[in-house]
Amino acid sequence: MGEKVTDKNIIEGTIIKGVGGLYTVLCDGASDDFNERLIDCRARGVFRHESITPMPGDKVKLLKDSQETDYIIDTIEERRSSLVRPAMANLTHLFIVIPAAKPKPDLLTADKLISAAEGKDIEPVVIITKADIDADESERLKSIYETGGFTVFCLSAVTGEGTEALSEYISANSEGMIAAFAGASGAGKSTLMSRIFPDLKLKTGEVSRKTQRGKHTTRHAELYPFKTKEGVCLIADTPGFSMLDYTRFYFFDASELPYTFREFKEYLGECKYTKCTHIKEEGCAVLAAIKAGKIAKIRHENYLLILEEIKKKPEWKRKQEERV
Question: What CATH topology corresponds to 245-322?
């Protein structure tokens, strides 16, 4: 089967899907036939008693059950990172997809995704799609995020223009990569993924001409193994954005939000007041950098909106509701 075996009854691997208490694990190994490396199994009851739910991305060890007929998830390794909604573990990259047009780019959603990723030590990569529809807007968006220090790709999933550079980036960073594609509804995530990873055969949705809202049908997070020239990466298409609800879920304290805006970081600590919130204080180094054109104004505007959202509900209340 090609799996990495440390003991005759122990197999190591990564959960790629979990539905109804049944998990699919991609076992470690050298075989290029991923189907040969898949095992469907359940988890030990002890995880439920300890309020631990296995998630796609979890590194696990499988052990033969007491009847020695099936494998069960015996151990879940410590997580590098985790997301609440959708439930995913150990992401290394989050590809944030922003359409240049149709629908209108939603930069608040993009910046919420970036902030959530930065707070979890996940590398955000910005992808601007539909560049063939509005090249000028595509360049404007590119400037905003390149100024912020992000890796940015401008492309068209329909024509294929610019997708090769993204494929090369994924290949170069594929060893150990667990990545998700996310963005506002209708941004073209699945269309893009189907072009870059044609063997994945993901369902794609189209944007309603009337509402310009996506008709995407993805229901749960699932990781898809993909072999590149440099290694094997696991790619996910995220199903929803309740993970962006800063009012309900606890990501970090309001005082930590500025550190999730990477272009702010070099100015933090340089403000006149120690507890500067970077809203409108006199002598704020962040505001001065915005005025000097070193930080995009829209990024600061979205920072203020996210900060306001976080402050709507006390930290203890958000922590309590996150466990629901």
Answer: Ribonucleotide Reductase Protein R1; domain 1 (1.10.40)
